[in-house]
Automatic annotation (TrEMBL):
CDD domains: TM_PBP1_LivM_like. The keyword Transmembrane helix applies. It is a multi-pass membrane protein. This is Branched-chain amino acid ABC transporter permease. The chain crosses the membrane at residues 29-50, 70-89, 109-130, 136-155, 205-224, 230-251, 263-279, 285-306, 311-330, 342-361, 373-392, 434-452, 486-506, 526-553, 560-578. It is found in: Cell membrane. The keyword Ion transport does not apply. It comes from Streptomyces lavendulocolor. InterPro entries: ABC_transp_permease, LivM-like.
Length: 608
């Protein structure tokens, strides 16, 4: 007898996740509060915040923002703009392909942090809150109201597990804190990015041009901040503002456009960079600009070794020093033991060639090592280079590098009758010495970018990536790991030597103290490696942005004195904790750190 059993269909109950805000307000009231608070913040920037011009920036005028008022105005404008986009107003939806709520929260935080920092700074410097004008109180209230409304916006709350009642009090506290942090992260999470309709090519190029112009404006403003309070406010506004644009999906949308027009984007970026000296009235900030280019270019060269090939090099700054010393010795310096004065094109080739030779000599016996062992060997090479050039002074050894005095009085370049040390007038603009070298270093940077781009997309570039991901598997597939790694090491050293040859002429003097593993002032090996990791390993723009920030921020934080490196280290730790893939990450690397995120259906070359 056959027994048949029937199972009743059990109805599946679907539970919808709870959607509430961090602050209990009705969603429509929260959205209106955040948007209106952002608009009121913009209005408050046109009011006087204090009665005396003693506070930097002179915040005593009505109708004309100054100093920190401009930064608060930007935060309020972003909050109001994203608030309007959240209502689906036509013309604003393109700005929020990933949703507007997280962007509203971050832009409201930007206005609140910068505004209340200004209130605290005015009170501390002028002696109390009594020094605030009504406009300052309006700003404080507006930013607070906007932030409260933003934090009350609803989001999908995660499912949280209760603490085990048998755990100790400390374990229960850690569990509750973890749940709270998970909730906060969910509050700032975004949805998938919606695909926009394809725009005409000329419109996309115009958008790329506008973005590059905006980038030049932000960089020029940041490098030209005249007092400490303004620079700290700039950091807060730029940090939260960039995060808001990223959460809105606007950064990803622009990245798609630049990937679609790669050559246009690259040419436009260098044209925008070339326009920087024309925005300056003197050579003061062009000095910082050319040093940023040197540092960022060397970081991009290190990105070949670390980002593409996966070789941890802790002595890379030594190759910069080799190129600088080699070029300085043949550039006609009276301190050089060799009475040789080659033209610059020959001197820069000497610097690059000698650096490449050193890269091969150091890499050949050491690149069979892996991981920490290779890092220790390269760290030793960096210190050996510094100690060697220190002792080649004619007393402890042969007179080659002039010891601790270095090679000084390196003459300015003169190419095709153009004296880089003289002041020139171009189109009515006065271009000083450092601006001249800025243009020269920009050309070197372009060469390095082209080499990096062509190498990474070539057969050997794919071999580097295979070695980085899994060297054992790459060897099993027939890749000659030693040869491939040696090419990466030699190419990275060559690019550092190119930058070193220009650095020697910019600084007039090369000394051993300039090429240490770690120092307060970049470039050094620690800062170079940090620039690659901070910016985003394996990308072109990542190390350039990371190098610019790591040179500019210490230069502007000198008022912190002995606490400068401490504050800088804390900032790096926080960034690596919350964004370990870097500021401008490689898409594959980003997915490694965020495995729960859905990968794109088609991983394009630009995404890779």
């Amino acid at each position: 007898m056959t027994t048949q059993t029937t199972t009743a269909d059990t109805p599946h109950t679907t539970t919808t996740a709870e959607r509430t805000g961090l602050i209990a307000l009705p969603p429509h009231i929260a959205r209106a509060t955040a948007t209106a608070g952002g608009a009121l913040t913009v209005v408050s920037a046109f009011l006087a915040w204090t009665w005396t011009p003693a506070f930097p920036g002179d915040l005593t005028y009505y109708g004309y923002p100054g100093g920190l008022q401009w930064l608060v105005l930007i935060g309020g404008a972003l909050t109001a703009l994203f608030g309007l986009a959240s209502y689906g107003i036509k013309g604003t939806r393109w700005l929020v392909p990933a949703g507007a709520d997280s962007a509203i929260k971050l832009s409201a935080l930007a206005a609140f942090a910068t505004g209340w920092y200004t209130i605290i700074a005015i009170s501390a410097q002028l002696g109390g809150l009594i020094n605030l004008e009504p406009g300052g109180w309006v700003m404080g209230l507006a930013t607070l109201v906007s932030l409260v409304g933003a934090l009350a916006l609803p989001f999908e709350r995660p499912h949280l597990l209760p603490a085990d009642p048998e755990d100790t009090g400390w374990d229960q506290f850690k569990h509750r804190a973890g749940n709270q942090w998970t909730t906060v992260k969910a509050a700032f999470a975004t949805g998938p990015i919606t695909q926009a309709r394809k725009l005409p090519g000329y419109v996309e190029i115009l958008i790329i041009t506008a973005v590059l112009a905006l980038g030049l404006t932000v960089f020029t403003y940041g490098i030209g901040t005249e007092y400490d309070e303004l620079f700290l406010g700039f950091l807060m506004t730029a940090g939260f503002g960039f995060a808001a644009l990223a959460k809105a999906g606007l950064i990803a949308r622009v990245s798609v456009l630049t990937a679609r027009h790669r050559n246009v984007a690259m040419i436009g970026a260098f044209v925008a960079a070339a326009a920087f000296p024309f925005t300056q009235s003197d050579d003061q900030y062009a000095t910082i600009g050319v040093n940023i280019l040197i540092f960022a270019t060397v970081a991009l060269g290190l990105n070949i070794v670390v980002g593409l090939a996966g070789l941890l090099d802790l002595g890379y700054v030594a190759f910069l020093g080799v190129g600088a010393y080699a070029a300085a010795m043949v550039s006609g310096s009276p301190s050089s033991p060799y009475d040789v004065h080659l033209p610059f094109w020959a001197a820069i080739l000497v610097g690059a060639s000698v650096s490449m030779i050193f890269g091969v000599l150091i890499g050949a016996p050491t690149l069979r090592l892996r991981g920490d062992y290779l890092a220790i060997v390269t760290l030793g090479f960096g210190e050996i280079f510094r100690i060697t050039v220190l002792n080649l002074d004619g007393t402890s050894g042969p007179d080659v590098t002039n010891g601790s005095n270095g090679i000084s009085s390196i003459p300015n370049l003169n190419m095709f009758g153009f004296d880089f040390g003289a002041v020139h007038t171009i189109g009515g603009f006065t271009i000083g010495r450092f601006a001249n070298y800025f243009f020269l270093m920009l050309l070197v940077t372009l060469i390095v970018v082209v080499v990096f781009r062509r190498s990474s997309e070539s057969r050997i570039g794919r071999a580097w990536i295979a070695i980085r991901e899994d060297e054992t598997a790459a060897l099993a597939m027939g890749i000659n790991g030693f040869r491939v790694k040696l090419v990466a090491f030699a190419l990275g050293a060559t690019l550092a030597g190119l930058a070193g040859a220009v650095q020697a002429h910019v600084t007039y003097t090369v000394t051993p103290e300039q090429y240490q593993f770690a120092h307060v002032v970049p470039p050094n090996s620690a800062f170079l490696l940090a620039a690659v990791v901070l910016g985003g390993m394996g990308t072109i723009s990542g190390p350039l942005v990371g190098g610019a920030l790591l040179f500019l921020i210490p230069n502007k934080l000198q008022f912190l004195g002995d606490y400068q490196l401490f504050a800088f280290g804390v900032a790096l730790v926080l960034l690596m904790r919350f964004r370990p893939e870097g500021m401008i990450p490689n898409r594959r690397r980003q997915l490694e750190f965020h495995e729960n995120e859905e990968a794109p259906a088609t991983l394009t070359k630009a995404g890779a």
